[in-house]
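Appendix B. Raw example, untouched.
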Amino acid sequence: MNSSRPDPAPAALPARPSADPRQRWRIAFRRDHGAPALEQREQLALWEAGLTASGLPLQGLELPVPRPRLVFGAPLPVGMPAERELLDLFLIERRPVAEIRAALASALPAGHELVDIHDIWLGEPALPAQVVAADYLVALDGGPAADEAGFARLRAAVERFLAASSLPRTREKSGRSVEYDLRPLVADLQVVAGDAREGGSAGAIRMRTRFDPERGVGRPEEVVAALSEMVGVPLIIASVLRERVVLAGES
């Protein structure tokens, strides 16, 4: 009696690896007040769609499910305008800078503008790992910053903040309160005159907050909340502008 066995199932084909990059471009871009206030995933989808249609030989487009390799410096809060955000693009073929600029002119999402572009060494560390801080301009809506005496009180609060060795605070995370120290997350604070770009506010606070892999990230609204307690009256935020992200080695 002959017995037969079913043929073995064919082995699954290994996933095709992405082609090696030949060029790495660092893009600096601006996001204005009119940009759509979208969640991070929606923002990424717009970037991917625009760059896929740009015609650039982006790494990842050669895969069975095309998806360009994009690496942003740091997440930008929903709806926050920014002056100089960073993004790395990887190409599988080398292209001149003029061609990159021309392709990006129509590829950026609405409300975004190209600021600068640089050809970066492929072996440089990942962009997010290089981000150590961010600069913000927080415009205030009246309050203590509205007159000379108020400015003096706010400056005194800033001096106390910077002189403090520790500033224990709590923040909400995943539905629970978490204790943390705000002071190590703030590198610098300054009280400045109102900026016309921020609607002619009475005053503003310029700050540099740190990105710490262990302690977390300094948040502008938490800095303002701490200063409000020091001043003794609420400081109302009119708007927040992220002026730049700071990389290791930059001043």
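End of appendix B.
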